[in-house]
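Summary for the lay section of the report: proteins are chains of building blocks that fold into shapes. Here we show the chain for Copper amine oxidase-like N-terminal domain-containing protein and then a coded description of the shape we predicted for it.
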Amino acid sequence: MKKKAFVAIISASMLASMGTGALAATKLKEIKAYLNPEVRVQVDGTYVDLRDVKGNAIAPITYNGANYFPIRSISDALDIAVDYNETTKTIILGEKVDGVSIVDGFKDMYYTKDSAKTTYKGKDYKEAYFNDGSGNRSSNFMLYPNKEHQTLYLQIAAVNGDITELTIQDSDTNTILKKIDVIKAEEGLVTVQVDIAGVKSLYIHGNVKGDTAVFVPLTTSYYK
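The coded shape description reads as follows.
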């Protein structure tokens, strides 16, 4: 989804969620717009009928050459969770985590948004570290908590084999903070909890053999 369209959808959703009293207290400007039932939506090549929470069909609002939809109808069509935090006035898309997702600023050659690689046991995590190299090798990546968090909750799964000697260490001091001898494929998605108080950067590495892949869902792994 293009950024401009995404922003437009969020704006329309926020407008729709405010009551008359809330509108009066804001600096929102009244506009003239039109319902446009001729506009249709396709998702992965298939037309979808957008509906509100009560099941009513939705027509987009056309304003200044842009089409605005309630964000919940779009999130339902894309199968993405959506919520609204009234206190912080924040629309939350995707998984909610009680912390800060490690996906922000994550960089690695095995970072991916390819749904074929971000999907694990039928669930698409949208963004992941997926090391599917070949042969016996080390699987490793960096994280940067920048001394701002106390704990890392890292979700990780071994695919088609085992991960051995998984080690999480302070890369500045080479201090080993956590070591797990083996994570077996049959264990599924494992959450590794690590004390990272005062740590600026982390080096995570483990060993795999043959066709074994390492899966880390970045959207549900987080700092706290």
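Put simply, here is one thing we learned. The chain is about 15% helix and 40% strand.
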